[in-house]
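JOB MANIFEST
job_type = single_chain_structure
chain_count = 1
residues = 305
[input]
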Amino acid sequence: MAAPARTAFFGTPPAAVPALAALAASTDVELVVTRPDKPRGRSGKPQPSAVKEAAEAWGLPVAQPNRAREVVELLQGLDLAVVVAYGQILPADVLAAPAHGFVNVHFSRLPRWRGAAPVARAILAGDEATGVDIIQLDEGMDTGPLIARREASIDPNDTTGTLTARLAGLGAELLVETLPAILDDTAVRTPQAESGVTIAAKLTSEEARIDPHSMTAADIDRVVRAFNPNPGAWGSVDGARLKVWETRVRADLTVPPGQSELIDRLPVVGTSDGAVELVEIQAAGKSRLPAEVWARGYRGALLWD
């Protein structure tokens, strides 16, 4: 029986953990590379990434270089490296170090949504479908040839959190299915289409702002879902910031744009073309609440700035 392939894994967030688990179950993972610990939470203390926590729990060796080039010697002699949301473009000498190079598990159907935020961008754009691609990594930003793809629909209630979790599971399954062909050089690599390229730029706080005076109900619903779980969509109500975690489009109701009314005890916000019902919200400095509970204790006019 042939010895298991010797591999490395590059990744950082929780969405990368399923692929690490799948790789560790199929090969000998001799190196896990993740980003340096960063301050998180109210304590401000450096915290490990989800990938580091998982790797250490499974007894896998971890490296946290400031630059990926620092681990190039550790990659020499390995068969393959797998990347899932590592957070840094890898230079040519790193990519060339393993015998079969690097493959990337990417959460979109390339060339649509190359870049840092493919899942959120797909939701913001109103895409009805997405997928997971495995590509041979090159020096570009998600520009390498396609090895395998798994399609996935975007459900009307999907958030970035729920859709990312589903794609992470699909990507792990597809990686395991594809590994044998990659390692025995039978995998077909197909160049990406030259048309239809879109860039999934990092999200900004201003993009998360809800403005019911100018936005449609569908626009608001997509923003809320795209920015859940991080950092949360927000609006300014009676001069105070309000985070909105869940909404429901109400095409059956009419409320003046920028105003809110209590309908059946639920706050409903008028938009440029209809209304949205607030389902879950979070006032500044407070915990998340059902909007119905929040509205019972609110004494303002519910006017959106």
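[summary]
The CA atoms of residues 204 and 276 lie 23 Å apart.
The mean pLDDT is 94.
exit_status = 0
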